[in-house]
Design brief:
By secondary structure, this protein is an alpha/beta fold. 44% of the residues lie in helices and 14% in strands. The structure holds adenosine monophosphate, fe (iii) ion (2 copies) and zinc ion.
């Protein structure tokens, strides 16, 4: 078993990098990619723990890209997580996250919900704060009945405290990963929300032209039809097939590390394929 899309407490997951690797060991996984949003600060700890427990750890990151249709997330694999150019861009993105959170806190206050910046820093371990952290704090403070309720009533797009996120252009997100020696993959490709086959073809071609090299065809929420569709796209554009669960611990209920409900087992050669693609650039 492998899992190439995992979040830790360095972004909006609830397990520390060490806890992720320990859990991977317990579940019998061979390889895990750490792919936190806009930060690589969990990677060294995961690599260290991986060496101790005999789990292969792939350094990764997840970056949001601007998209006219739906949600575009780009994963980077086998990045040099000490690349100075990349670290500077990620610093910028996290600064924008903090800005956005301040704006959301103001809007929450206008709706008589008080959450402090200090609470957010604590909840997000001072790293890469996002709406899931706010939902947790709103729930703990008793402002909402559930974390989902926090999104539905305040945080979702169109709700009273919504503030859009500053995103990189898709080409810039891909270039950033390439420049750090990594392989760029499109995460949970169903979320770009393009269903027309010709349109999907055009959109994917545009990403490939920007340097996209892999596609997350295996994803827990993908139906068998979607998995097949994305495997076909991988073949058509010579993309490496990847698979990841987007595990966030208790911040994403129903998702288990390394478990793909609609698939027996995802292929293992994807790690070698990604590594080869990273080395052959
Ligand atoms: P952010 O990066 O701050 O925009 O937060 C995005 C994360 O919030 C996503 O990865 C989801 O886990 C969660 N999220 C976004 N929209 C919703 C929603 N409508 N309901 C529940 N969770 C959501
Ligand atoms: Fe997340
Ligand atoms: Fe994502
Ligand atoms: Zn993710």
């Amino acid at each position: 078993m492998i899992d190439l899309h995992v979040h830790t407490t360095m972004s909006d997951g609830t397990l520390t990098p060490s806890e992720i690797i320990a859990l991977a060991r317990q579940k019998g996984l061979q390889a895990v990619a750490i792919t936190d949003h806009d930060t690589v600060s969990g990677i060294d700890e995961a690599l260290q723990m991986g060496l101790e427990l005999g789990i292969e750890v792939i350094p990764g990151v997840e970056i949001s890209g601007a998209c006219d249709y739906g949600i575009l997330h780009i994963l980077g694999y086998f990045i040099n997580h000490n690349d100075v150019g990349m670290l500077a861009e990620l610093d910028y993105l996290r600064a924008q996250r903090k800005n956005r959170i301040s704006q959301i806190l103001k809007k929450l206050l206008q709706n008589n919900l008080f959450i402090s910046e200090a609470d957010v820093i604590r909840e997000s371990h001072g790293s890469s704060p996002g709406r899931p952290h706010l939902a947790n704090l709103m729930y703990e403070a008793g402002y909402v009945k559930t974390r989902q309720d926090a999104f539905d009533r305040y945080l979702r797009k169109g709700a009273p405290a919504y503030v859009p996120k500053v995103k990189l252009e898709a080409a810039d997100a891909i270039r950033l990963i390439e420049n750090a020696g990594g392989v760029a993959a499109i995460a949970h490709p169903h979320s770009i929300n393009v269903t027309d086959p010709d349109k999907l073809n055009d959109v994917m071609k545009s990403f490939v032209d920007m340097g996209l090299k892999a596609i997350e065809a295996f994803y827990p929420q993908h139906t068998p039809e979607q998995t097949r569709l994305f495997l076909n796209i991988a073949e058509k554009f010579d993309l490496v097939v990847t698979g990841g669960t987007d595990f966030h611990g208790s911040n994403k209920p129903g998702v288990e590390l390394g478990v793909f409900p609609n698939v027996n087992e995802i292929p293992h050669d994807m790690v070698a394929n990604l590594r080869n693609r990273a080395l052959s650039r």
